[in-house]
Amino acid sequence: MPYIEIQIYEVSEVLEMLIAELFEIGYDGFEEKDAQLNAFIGDAAFNENDLILILNKYHLNYSKSIIKDKNWNHIWETNFQPVVVDDFVAVRAEFHQPFTDVLHEIVITPKMSFGTGHHATTFMMLQLMRTINFTNKTVFDFGTGTGILAILAEKLAAKKIIAGDNDDWSITNAIENVATNHCKNITIEKIADAKSSIVFDIIIANINKNIILENLSNLNNCCVENGEILLSGLLEDDEKAIIEAVADYGWKLQKVVKKSGWIAMDYKKVKTLH
User: Fold this and answer.
1) Within a domain: residue 48?
2) In this structure, is residue 47 part of a structural domain?
3) Of 19, 45, 77, which residue sits at a domain end?
4) What is the domain count for the chain?
5) By CB neighbour count within 10 A (0-12 exposed, 13-18 middle, 19+ buried), where does 27 fall?
6) Phi then psi for 117, rounded to 5 degrees?
7) Where among 47, 77, 107 does a domain terminate?
8) pLDDT > 80? residue 74
9) pLDDT confidence band for 1 (50 / 70 / 90)
């Protein structure tokens, strides 16, 4: 699948908000170069009118080009730097030197799939996962992307992980990354939503507000009583809508973490109201 690359100029003063708004309309790769932002989106998801509406608001100019899949790998390999979350976990590519001063290390092949740890939402999910006991637990990673969160769940001793996504590129990349990290307890599945006949101890959903809201009932139904539900892909402005919607299901908010205008939320399912 070809990708569209949008080069946006003189973005320094609005960079974080611009990335947030582009992410909301489907852009899933970003590259910063001085005062320029390069944003990437699948050809099928690209809508130039939506892009223009956002850029006009900030009075920004842009240019557009098409890149092939093979070129995307080179872009990542040129720009991908390791991500370190405290002394807990390091995320690197195979061409980086191993880390020896962290508890866990994840090796990710840098392709177009969302979730290398660089984006604030993935970073925060990695942080939240440190606070949860995964030992012998079952886990559902809804919207797995590269598989990074599923891989960490196995490294934290989860006994069974179902990692699902609706994107073929993500499925292929996640399978590759699971193999690279020698994981044995992860099953990668192509899914359209969070509906499942299995119930899980822990649910991870790092997607976006709309998909989370559309799947709250499914997420509730496939989580055990007193199970953990981690949500991200959310802007700070989304927090109120999520809290109001989740109240219908009786989940208890444990923690909210914030980074660069984004949030991640840790809920416990304490009772079933639906």
Assistant:
1) yes
2) yes
3) 77
4) 2
5) buried
6) 100, -15
7) 77
8) no
9) low
85 bridge partner residues: 89
First to last CA, the chain: 40
Q: What is the DSSP letter of 34?
A: T
State whether 141 and 211 are in the same domain.
Answer: yes
Measured distance CA(170)–CA(255) in Å, rounded: 29
- 25, with CB counted inside 10 A (0-12, 13-18, 19+), is middle
d(CA 211, CA 189): 17
What's the angle, vertex CA 245, arms to CA 125 and CA 222, rounded to 5?
60
Asked whether residue 185 is domain-assigned, the answer is: yes
Confidence of residue 21 (pLDDT cuts 50, 70, 90): confident
Are the C-beta atoms of residues 159 and 185 closer than 8 Å to each other? yes
Helix (H, G, I), strand (E, B) or coil at 82: coil
Nearest-angstrom CA–CA distance, 168 and 83 = 25
Tens-place pLDDT, residues 163-190: 999 888 789 889 999 999 999 999 999 9
Structural domain of 140: 120-269
Structure tokens at 132: 């949860």
Q: In degrees rounded to 5, what are phi and psi of residue 207?
A: -130, -100
Strand order across the beta sheet in which 262-269 lies? 186-190, 160-165, 138-142, 200-206, 223-235, 262-269, 251-259
- ∠ CA 84-76-30, nearest 5°, is 80
User: By three-state DSSP, how is residue 100 classified?
Assistant: coil
d(C-alpha 192, C-alpha 67), whole Å: 27
